[in-house]
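Support request from a user on the community tier.

User writes: "When I paste my structure tokens into the form, the page sometimes reloads and wipes my input. The last time it worked, I copied everything first. Here is what I submitted, just in case something in the input itself triggers the reload:"
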């Protein structure tokens, strides 16, 4: 019996190895747990196109929006672990375990990480006629007026929601939070001076900032961004160590053969070094990571550290999703 079991195990390992060697032999589906047309969808489609070149098979994007990205993520976690279903998700993967009281997957164990993909800095912005002209003046105004200042976010778990929590915690002052159903309406009301301020990823604010339709105070990256050379970092502007970016990671379901994950990681590393992809991502104020970060280890470490970072902030704010 032991000999039979050993033989079966060897046969299974051989079949798995052959399958991995022939991978991919058909198109790959990349789940995006958000609606088409948004920043994450744009990152996914550009990355999928670049990865298709080196994989020799199309990587097709399928949008599965809903519940802050948890519906699509759950589907990906339950998919057959053969490398033909992968998931591209953003920073929300690290906040979901705390934001959602009922989550049917554990982000830290339900997936085989492939690698980090991109980083997008956040921008602290306000309506064009807001009286504060610098970040220091903005903070002073908020501390003086508190809940008299309105802060817009795109809903629980959105980048603007997370940045707002971090910002209010950093300055130790609460504003009146106004939730919206998306970034588009926020920008419309911000440009129309119907709302005071927000903090959102540069992908969403770049157009209005460049057109001087809103007022910019700082970027939340360690260095200034070439898209906004005159916009200081938050640290430069008087908010020390205030750093935040919307990062994207690529995942496969747990149990995906290591050889298959390695091929996907290799294709991702080729993609993030592709000048054409870099140029197209730069146009939407998002930046591919360096090759050394497009690895399973780097993504797992980032996920774990971000979960630890956001858990106490979310619990302290008491802002949970249903």
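"...and here is what came back when it finally went through:"
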């Amino acid at each position: 019996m032991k000999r039979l079991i050993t033989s079966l195990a060897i046969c299974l390992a051989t079949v798995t190895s052959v399958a991995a060697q022939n991978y991919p032999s058909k198109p790959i589906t990349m789940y995006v747990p958000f609606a088409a047309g948004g920043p994450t969808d744009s990152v996914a489609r550009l990355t999928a196109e670049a990865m298709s070149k080196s994989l020799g098979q199309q990587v097709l994007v399928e949008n599965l929006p809903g519940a802050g990205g948890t519906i699509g993520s759950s589907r990906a976690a339950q998919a057959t672990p053969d490398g033909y279903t992968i998931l591209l998700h953003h920073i929300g993967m690290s906040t979901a375990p705390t934001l959602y009281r009922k989550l049917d997957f554990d982000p830290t164990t339900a997936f085989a990480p492939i690698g980090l993909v991109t980083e997008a800095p956040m921008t602290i912005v306000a309506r064009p006629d807001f009286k504060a002209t610098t970040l220091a003046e903005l903070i002073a105004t908020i501390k003086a007026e508190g809940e008299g200042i309105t802060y817009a976010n795109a809903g629980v778990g959105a980048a603007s929601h997370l940045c707002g929590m971090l910002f209010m915690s950093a300055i130790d002052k609460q504003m009146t939070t106004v939730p919206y159903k998306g970034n588009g309406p926020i920008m419309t009301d911000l440009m129309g001076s119907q709302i005071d301020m927000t903090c959102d990823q540069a992908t969403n604010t770049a157009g209005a900032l460049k057109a001087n339709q809103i007022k910019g105070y700082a970027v939340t990256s360690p260095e200034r961004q070439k898209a906004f050379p005159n916009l200081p970092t938050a640290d430069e502007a008087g908010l020390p160590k205030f750093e935040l970016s919307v990062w994207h990671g690529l995942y496969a379901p747990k149990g995906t053969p290591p050889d298959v994950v390695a091929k996907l990681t290799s294709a991702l590393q080729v993609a993030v070094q592709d000048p054409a992809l870099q140029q197209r991502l730069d146009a939407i104020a998002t930046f591919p990571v360096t090759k050394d970060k497009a690895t399973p280890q780097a993504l797992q470490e980032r996920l774990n550290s971000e979960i630890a970072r956001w858990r106490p902030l979310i619990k302290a704010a008491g802002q949970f999703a249903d």
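Agent notes: The reload is a front-end session timeout and is unrelated to the input. The CA atoms of residues 235 and 241 lie 6 Å apart. The radius of gyration is 21 Å. Escalated to web team.
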